[in-house]
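> example.struct
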C-alpha cells in the first residue's frame, strides 16, 4: 500500500508533503490504518460528493490523502470546515503518522 499525504495552512501554517509504503509502517499501526480505511469507507467515497478545496484562508487547514493498494486507489481532499466526521479519524491518524516520521 502506498500512502501520500499533504497538509497546508491552518493556524500553525502547516506544510506537510509526505508519503510512505506499508512496509515502512509498524504492524500495529498498519492494522489501525486498515481499520480506519475500512470504517471511513475511504475507497468507496467519491470526491464529487464533497467540496474539493484548492486553498482557503490562512487559518483553514487543507488536507489531501491518496491511498493505493494492489486493487484500489483513491484521493480525497478536505478542509477543516468540510471534512466529514467519518474521515476525520483517518486523516488525523495519517497526520500523526507523518509527524512521527519527520
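> example.seq
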Amino acid at each position: 500500500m502506498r500512502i501520500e499525504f499533504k497538509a497546508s495552512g491552518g493556524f500553525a501554517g502547516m506544510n506537510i508533503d509526505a508519503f510512505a509504503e506499508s512496509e515502512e509502517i509498524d504492524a500495529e499501526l498498519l492494522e489501525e490504518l486498515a481499520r480506519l480505511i475500512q470504517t471511513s469507507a475511504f475507497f468507496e467515497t467519491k470526491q464529487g460528493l464533497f467540496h474539493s478545496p484548492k486553498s482557503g484562508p490562512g487559518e483553514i487547514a487543507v488536507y489531501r490523502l491518496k491511498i493505493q493498494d494492489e486493487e484500489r486507489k483513491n484521493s480525497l481532499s478536505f478542509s477543516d470546515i468540510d471534512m466529514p466526521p467519518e474521515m476525520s479519524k483517518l486523516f488525523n491518524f495519517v497526520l500523526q503518522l507523518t509527524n512521527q516520521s519527520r
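> remarks
Helices lie at 27-40, 85-100.
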